[in-house]
Amino acid sequence: MNASLRRPRVLVIDDDEDIRVILEMMLGAEFDVRTRSDALSGLVAAHDFAPSTIVLDLLMPGFGGWDVVRTLREDPRTKDTRIIILTAIADPDAAARAAAEGCSFLTKPLDSDALLQSLTHQLLCTG
Fold first, then answer.
1. E strands, 23-81, where?
2. Sign of the CA dihedral with 89 first, then 62, 80, and 8 last
3. How far, in Å, CA of 105 to CA of 32, rounded?
4. How far apart are CA 68 and CA 3, in angstroms?
5. C-alpha distances in angstroms, 33 versus 8, 25, 116, 120?
6. pLDDT tens digits, the chain, 127 residues: what are they?
7. Taking a C-beta distance cutoff of 8 angstroms, is the pair 94, 105 a contact?
8. Of 90, 28, 22, 100, nearest in space to 59 by CA
9. Rounded Cα distance, 46 and 12, in Å
10. Hey, which residues does 53 pair with through a beta bridge?
11. Beta strands in 1-127, from DSSP E residues, in sequence order
12. Closest CA to 87 of 30, 8, 68
């Protein structure tokens, strides 16, 4: 069996190429990582790739992160997908909204330890 089939799948949706590259390099040893640069291609990948967790930026042009969360939660195929919001919005209201949507909330600049801890926690708690 291919090693990537056994590793948990993580989809990164962020319009910032540097963030996508950093996350792919940082997570690639432990997770099967795919990246997308916009919300709409990210939603397609959420169905095709079927990740266990999505790392999602909120501030993207056009269809934004909250739209992605709403769409994923309304779709029976993705409603239970774990979501980690990784955003430059350091706002208590955004964090509260994320919690209400069942999402973890981390702010940029990227804290790699916090992200790995959140991913590990989600995988251990929900299998």
1. 32-36, 53-56
2. negative
3. 21
4. 29
5. 9, 9, 13, 15
6. 455 457 899 999 999 999 999 999 999 988 999 999 999 999 999 999 999 999 999 998 888 999 999 999 999 999 999 999 999 988 999 999 999 999 999 998 877 788 878 777 766 665 5
7. yes
8. 90
9. 10
10. 10, 82
11. 9-13, 32-36, 53-56, 82-87, 104-107
12. 68
Contact between 84 and 56 under an 8 Å Cβ cutoff? The reply is yes
Q: Which two tokens stand for residue 10?
A: 């993580």
Q: pTM for this one?
A: 0.88
For residue 4, the model assigns a pLDDT of: 46
Helix 112-126 and helix 17-27: axis angle, to 10°? 60
